[in-house]
Amino acid sequence: MESPRLKQDIIAETVRSWILQGKYSPGEKLPTDSELAMQFNVNRCTVAAGLNQLSEENLIDRAPKRGSVVKRRDHLLRTNAVSLVAPLSGETYSTLITKINELLQEHDLFPILMDEKLINKEEEVSKFMHKVVKKSCPYGNLVLGDCFPYEDMNKPPFTLFTTVFLLRYHYFEEFPHAKYALLDYEDMGRQVVEYFAERNIGRILYPAIPEIVFRGAWSSQQVMLLNHILKYAEKAGLEVDSSFFWRTHGGADIDVVLPMALEQSKVSTGFFSWSDWVLGNKVFPVLQKMGYDPMKDFSVLGNFNTHFSEEFGFDTFDQRVEEIAKIGVDMLTEQIDERKVLLPPKLICRAGK
Questions:
Q1: Domain closes at, from 40, 75, 110
Q2: Strands (E), 31-137
Q3: Which of 5, 36, 222, 279 is least surrounded, with the fewest CB atoms within 10 Å of its CB?
Q4: Cα gap 217→51, rounded to integer Å
Q5: What are the pLDDT tens digits along the chain (353 aa)?
């Protein structure tokens, strides 16, 4: 059972959100303690306790006669360290990290990388971020939004520094003090449907990577992408076997469910997957056991532009990670003003169909 929140914490959280959302600008006075006490229906001591938290966070100045004044962001002492929360291995992620390192060096910044073994545990990410702030007061944060303690984003130290989410984002709201350099997955859904429609494919099978922890559509990029595909498939008159997706998403064996899905098909079938790896290591062996030639008998579209698509010769999407890294670092260093950029994926054609 959660402990009840203190009124002073509620006041601190509310006033902090006012500042971060721009309701009160740098140099502007907040309402007096007496006015806030009336507004929150508490005594002045409770208001003072809440505002003192914001003073300790370096968001406001408090003086007996002057009142509470919002500080300029550049009053916040920052080092040239950047906390970097993203996997280091894998073709896509290693490219992303290499490019980020290169770009940060151009700005005399250096990354503090989290242990990759802990990167899928929200509580460990939270501990890491707090430790980085305590030890090095970072310039900002670059985060791959797959597994992140989003509930912490409205609390210090997350509120004190610019956080840029890269490539993907897994939360149902955006934060006013964060920035976003993301791949446009709705556009990917549109491109997937157009790809198969242009090849006269009537039905799409989308094998998923199993996700043990699933909190809702917003928490899974695979599911978000499925919903975008369904939206455009309906307009184009294409069938999408959602039940096949959800069975594989829940961990069903592709060896079992794929033959069943193909037996139920009365129209030409195409395969799309979130991962080239799933196609090369899971789908193709089953098709070959069934006597099919995957590349001759089906239209196949992958994702992430890995060596699997090169090896088997199927078309795939380039997630444009180097460009996203550049946009993200430019956002962090305030080289560009945009708070959010959606970059459409590029289709890489190898199959020649």
A1: 75
A2: 60-63, 67-70, 81-85, 110-113
A3: 5
A4: 37
A5: 344 678 998 998 889 878 866 788 888 899 999 999 999 999 999 999 999 988 887 788 898 878 899 887 554 557 899 999 999 888 899 999 999 999 999 999 999 999 989 988 889 999 998 888 777 778 999 999 888 899 888 776 677 678 999 999 999 889 888 999 999 999 999 999 999 999 999 999 999 999 887 888 888 999 999 999 999 999 999 999 999 999 999 999 999 999 999 988 778 999 999 999 999 999 999 999 999 999 999 999 999 999 999 999 999 999 999 999 999 999 999 999 899 999 999 999 987 65
